[in-house]
Design a protein that fits this description.
This protein has one domain: Orthogonal Bundle (ABC transporter involved in vitamin B12 uptake, BtuC), CATH 1.10.3470. Helix 9 (about 215-225) packs across helix 11. The strands form 2 sheets. It has a two-stranded antiparallel sheet. The protein has helices at about 15-25, 25-40, 45-70, 80-95, 115-135, 145-160, 180-185, 195-210, 215-225, 225-230, 235-260, 275-285, 295-315, 320-359, and strands at about 100, 110, 190, 190-195. By secondary structure, it is mostly helical.
């Protein structure tokens, strides 16, 4: 006897509706948050505020994209905020001082143009990500502990680079081609901030990587079932190293952008940024258990966090309460994600039972 297909009636309408709402929770949250602040916050819908929000969203989204890949593999990266601070200081140092060759007995220094400053800074961020990956894969250090350690190391290195002081006046030098450095964080192209165009490129590349390449499938496989992925030939360690290097790359971009935007670099830059990144990724549907997540959902999650942060500021809510609210958002997102997983498992069992009865 041939098994009949399972009809939609095998699942109750209430269950289907609830599952749909859970899957669409990020868009629902975005609509609710946007509507609330559009009504309650003065000038929230102004063009100037829209530009400010887009810049803040871009910073959150860069970090959240890298965090998404890490969490999909079942890991966590607590060091991204410190990498932002360290890379901002590296960029500031390179713009102001270049690299002094005096220690080699050479009486001059190497100066860099804006592109070279950005590339060298990004390499530093990727190197920190590489250290995270090696600690986790080669020394079997838990991701939480490994990235917590590099959080302190990177923050300490940022402080040591200037003795805790700020690198000010990062306008660059026309003689060295670094005078365009402020454009990275403050320039506009076709009416949009340049950093937003950078985000669009990074997001498209990340989405293509996740959905259209073998590496993307391997990332999901490692998070879904690491042992099964290894047995099927996936190079688990290389995949894990890649996601942490990519996370470091994204954090380094944010460090460069902030230093460029402020035309100054401070070693405390990026504190608690990891909170925003985790919140945006989890709110966007990335499962903390690994194996599930989408770049598009993460971008929407970054919009929710960005609008929430800016809206609270416009309403005069203190930064202390903002931190509390962001923490509650993370907790709520994880609870909802677990509820979705349990409901999907229950629906799958119902479908299997219906299929057995129809057979």
């Amino acid at each position: 006897m041939t098994a009949a297909p399972v009809s939609a009636s095998a699942i109750s309408p209430g269950t289907s509706a609830l599952l749909f709402l859970l899957r669409a929770r990020t868009f629902v949250a975005l609509i609710l948050v946007f509507t609330y602040f559009a009504v309650m916050a003065p000038n929230f819908l102004s063009l100037a505020n829209a530009v400010i929000i887009s810049k803040h969203v871009a910073l959150n989204a860069f970090l959240a994209i890298g965090m998404t890949f890490v969490i999909i593999t079942g890991g966590i990266d607590l060091s991204v905020g410190s990498i932002v601070g360290l890379c901002g200081m590296v960029a500031g140092w390179l713009v102001i001082n270049g690299i002094d060759l005096g220690v080699l007995g050479i009486g001059y220094s190497i100066q860099f143009n804006s592109l070279e400053v950005a590339v060298l800074t990004v390499i530093v961020g990727m190197f920190v990500g590489l250290i995270n990956g090696l600690l986790i894969t080669r020394l079997n250090v838990a991701p939480f502990i490994a990235t917590l350690g590099t959080l302190y190391v990177a923050r300490g290195a940022a402080l040591l680079s200037s003795g805790g002081r700020t690198f000010p006046n990062l306008q660059g030098n026309a003689d060295y081609g670094s005078d365009s450095f402020p454009f990275i964080g403050s320039g506009t192209v076709f009416g949009l901030p340049f950093m937003v165009w950078m985000l669009i490129v990074v997001a498209l590349v990340a989405a293509y990587l996740a959905n259209r390449t073998p590496l993307g499938r391997h990332i999901y496989a490692v998070g879904g079932n690491e042992r099964g992925a290894a047995l099927s030939g996936v190079k688990v360690n290389q995949v894990k190293i890649f996601v942490y290097v990519f996370s470091g790359f994204c954090a380094a971009l944010v460090g460069v952008i902030i230093a460029s935007q402020l035309q100054a670099a401070h070693p405390a830059t990026g504190e608690t940024f990891e909170l925003n990144a985790i919140a945006a990724a989890v709110l966007g549907g990335t499962s903390m258990a690994g194996g599930r997540g989408r770049i598009g959902g993460t971008i929407v999650g970054a919009f929710v966090i960005g609008i929430l942060s800016d809206g609270l500021i416009m309403m005069g809510v203190s930064s202390f309460w903002q931190t509390v609210i962001k923490g509650l958002v993370i907790i709520a997102a994880v609870v909802i994600d677990q509820a979705q997983s349990k409901l999907q498992a229950r629906v799958a069992l119902q479908q299997e039972a219906a299929a057995s009865r129809a057979a």
